Amino acid sequence: MVALNATPVAEPFIKARKAPIDLVYLSTLTMGDAALEAEILGMFASQLPAYIGSIQQCSAASDRKRALHTLKGAARSVGAKRLSELAAMLENEPSSPLNDLVGEADRVGEFIQSVSA
Questions:
Q1: Is 3 helix (H, G, I), strand (E, B) or coil?
Q2: Would you tell me how many other CB atoms lie within 10 Å of the CB of residue 91?
Q3: 60 DSSP assignment
Q4: Which of 86, 78, 88 is nearest to 109 (CA)?
Q5: What's the pLDDT band for 89 if we cut at 50, 70, 90?
Q6: What is the CATH number of domain 12-116?
Q7: Mean pLDDT, to the nearest integer, of 52-75?
Q8: What pLDDT, on a 0 to 100 scale, did the predictor assign at position 17?
Q9: Of 7, 38, 51, 103, which shows the fewest CB atoms inside 10 Å?
């Protein structure tokens, strides 16, 4: 019997794959400028509660769609793919519950806070 030489996958790599923000994508956009990445993530994190609050407060479907569209683009621009996808789905169904979107927004905010510390 031949034993396989399997090298364990590094823990940070596993976490990076599950991260709510694609940091490789963001790094590509910033050409590897870590200070710019931190600034972009900081701005997004500070605006995220306002995006979610705006979506939650909209009573008209057209207003909610507009707010979701704004979040979709902002999330996509920083590499928050899942958040962007959820906003896109809700944009097409603006009367659907916001639970998943709010949960993912919280996850993204916590992630940004963890990488900024």
A1: coil
A2: 17
A3: S
A4: 78
A5: very high
A6: 1.20.120.160
A7: 95
A8: 52
A9: 7
